[in-house]
Amino acid sequence: MAEVVLQDIRKAFGETIAVDGLSLTIRDGEFVVLLGPTGAGKTTALRLIAGLERPDGGQVTIAGRDVARQSPAERDVAFVFQQYSLYPHLSVYDNLAFPLRSPARRLSNEDVDRRVRDVARMVQIDHKLQNRSTRLSGGEMQRVAIGRALVRRPAIYLMDEPLSSLDAKLRAELRLELKRIQNELNSTLLYVTHDQVEAMTMADRIGILAEGRLVQIGTAREIYANPANLHVAARLGQPHINLLPVDLLPGATAPFGACTIGARTEHLEIATSAVGNAEVDWIEHLGDQNHLHIRVKGHKIVTLADPYLSVSPGDRINLTLRQPLYFGMDGERLR
Ligand SMILES: Nc1ncnc2c1ncn2[C@@H]1O[C@H](COP(=O)(O)OP(=O)(O)OP(=O)(O)O)[C@@H](O)[C@H]1O
């Protein structure tokens, strides 16, 4: 495994700037997730590291080597795509063994067999090794695709939304497995997604990407608690952060230049009060949590509902701020 460093990488497709001066270090053994909306440049960033695209400028180094002149095969990376891309005519076993059988690797049949069986156990597909890869469920196929990357020990694993085609339950399971496997192998992994839950549950550090630029990078906790600007604040947290005018609610003194307040559930105190400043609009029941929809002077606010707070639609409540986040005119965080 190795450290991978991107320095001021740029890539445009005609008029579209896909990656715009991206600098990022993925440390040896680190799991970094790039999180961003569609079109943010996530896939392009991976493809530039893999050598599937040429940058217009900037430098990529893998284990200290400038890889500009190296072909994808020479770069020693393993890529897992969004859609499983297995060899349909081969068994699960042969799909997993395929990357190990190139003559350049010179592995004995015993070594190949051991590695295939180890990885099959890791991704929990060892009971289906002899199945044709087409005779698998979507989740099983994606396990094989991930396993096929894992049999090798490349400098870095690059994963492009590998779980997005799976149903919610499987996605949750594989998320945990992938994190466990990465820990076990101590591998360097760059993973891209637009799913904040994936980013928060798996990443050592999350990089927030917007319009080809890295807006902020840090642990999930840092990014959630200390977003650098409105864009980052809006990317993490369920329900979404409430963005409100500074003078809407009592309880906090805005710093000079504050234009917008960011209030999550933990920044809002709710008390039942017949003469309160807000009204309960409706309660959204989501099973494991309920969202309380509130109206204040024409503004809508959504928070997690305290299960012990007994309110109904139409009730008045008193809403007070508790150390919210403040943003200036330009959307940058003030404190
Ligand atoms: N081969 C290409 N030719 C032209 N434009 C491209 C090409 N590849 C990407 N783009 C453009 O570059 C921008 C970034 O695309 P990219 O696929 O990297 O985004 P993304 O963050 O991975 O999005 P998604 O989540 O939808 O996959 C987009 O505007 C896209 O349309």
Automatic annotation (TrEMBL):
Q: What is the recorded membrane topology of this protein?
A: Peripheral membrane protein
- Keyword Membrane assigned: no
Q: Which residues form a coiled coil?
A: none
| Gene3D superfamilies named among the record's database cross-references | Nucleic acid-binding proteins (2.40.50.140), P-loop containing nucleotide triphosphate hydrolases (3.40.50.300)
Every copy of the ABC transporter domain together lies at 4-236
**Cited InterPro entries:** AAA+_ATPase, ABC_transporter-like_ATP-bd, ABC_transporter-like_CS, ABC_transpr_MalK-like, ABC_transpr_MalK/UgpC-like, Mo/tungstate-bd_C_term_dom, NA-bd_OB-fold, P-loop_NTPase
> What keywords would UniProt list here?
ATP-binding, Nucleotide-binding, Transport
Indicate yes or no for the key word ATP-binding: yes
Single GO molecular-function term?
ATP binding
Q: Where in the cell is it found?
A: Cell inner membrane
The family note in this entry says: Belongs to the ABC transporter superfamily.
Q: Which PANTHER family match?
A: MALTODEXTRIN IMPORT ATP-BINDING PROTEIN MSMX (PTHR43875), OSMOPROTECTIVE COMPOUNDS UPTAKE ATP-BINDING PROTEIN GGTA (PTHR43875:SF1)
What is the protein named?
Answer: ABC transporter ATP-binding protein
Protein source organism: Sinorhizobium numidicum
